[in-house]
Automatic annotation (TrEMBL):
This is Phosphinothricin acetyltransferase. Residues 3-165 form the N-acetyltransferase domain. PROSITE patterns: GNAT. Transmembrane segments: none annotated. GO terms for molecular function: acyltransferase activity, transferring groups other than amino-acyl groups. The keyword Transport does not apply. Keywords: Acyltransferase, Transferase. It catalyses: L-methionine sulfoximine + acetyl-CoA = N-acetyl-L-methionine sulfoximine + CoA + H(+); L-methionine sulfone + acetyl-CoA = N-acetyl-L-methionine sulfone + CoA + H(+).
Amino acid sequence: MEIILRHATLADLPAILDIVNHAIAHTTANYSYEPQTLEMQRQWLLDKQRNGFPVIVAEVDREILGYGAYGTFREKIGYQYTVEHSVYVVDGHNGKGIGGRLMAELIRLARAQNLHVMVGAIDAANAQSIAFHKKFGFTESGTIRQAGFKFGQWLDLLFMQLILK
């Protein structure tokens, strides 16, 4: 299986939207309740591009099977060297190296932009995502208990970080 990584284009948005909306509807990887619209996803991509942040897709046989991005962690200027990232893979394609390739590329791009810290905000019950992040050297940096509410339950939010340089 050849995985091609490239920067996302507007033409990729329907595939990215499907991935995001599946996560919203079926997982606690994303704490949103309502599906995103194509226009919301379009604005998200344009905002990332305007601010110099990458959105990359993983393509296999001309099908988008995952995407990764990072962006502003917090708005205050003192956080300008810290970014929060996301990596999503199409359901049923986990464990095939797609997420790992996306994460490695995000880390490479962040280092090239002279960023200092990458942060992942992960549902604390998501052992698979926690283990995935640890493989890349991320460490647990704190948990906010009952920070989210979804599917009728309170959710703990775990922060993991990677110091890039």
